[in-house]
Predict the 3D structure of the following.
Amino acid sequence: MTYKTVLTALTDTSLLNSTLAQSAAFAQGHDAHLEVICLGVDRTQTGYYYAGANAMVLQETLSRANAEAEELAGLAKERLQREELRWAVDHRVAQLADIGRQIAAHARFADLVVLPQPYGKERGIELEPVTEGALFEGQVPVMIVPDGVTVKPQPERVVIAWNESREAMRAVRAALPLLTQAKAVHVVVIDPPQHGPTRSDPGGLLSQFLARHGVRPKVDVLSKTMPSVADVLLRHVTDVDADLVVMGAYGHSRFREAILGGATRSMLEQTQVSVLMAH
């Protein structure tokens, strides 16, 4: 597998430069085509608008969202004209409840989606459904790049959060182009099961799989000595000086298609390195 189409999404001018810089750097490093979708978010919710609202008011909010989408697209094109890579920019309007579907329609034709952290100071509420739309509805791997982090097209030290789940395995497969080029790969197992076929060799089968792809992983078995799995994992990321975490993304059904689960959300809130996730 190679990354030949990289997608990113823009919903906020304040994040435009950093998001484009990160996604463009990754695309350049893999000789990939960068697709940019610019969304003007119509935050009016059908059926929940105040009584007496008329068509003129509704049209005003739609026009404002369209103007925001056009502004984002114009700024993105201006920024990307200075980059040496193949790119395309599209823009459209999406209601808040429909963002996931809009993102998924583009994401399913990409090899990887590069996005900023959906949580943090001055983050819009639309960033969470953007991330969820790519992961759950688009079924495509997503790389989250925190603020202030320079994305590395070929990370040197990678931590794999391994719990034998299908989500974690899918993330590993998606990350193979990066894992085969990394200098060090750590398969991290936290509180391995005391029963079952892998109890005496946690991470062994994954290590065998990776070795056959030319990766030489090291298995790190850790105890949950901190309140959450995310805390333990992030401390180990610091200890081994990793620049990428590979992990499964987990969610729970709610009113939307899916909502990021607790462990996944904690990682995205706290991480100081890039995280590649798959569902």
User: Anything to note?
Assistant: The longest helix spans residues 55-80. The chain is about 35% helix and 25% strand. The longest strand covers residues 33-42. The two ends are 18 Å apart (CA to CA).
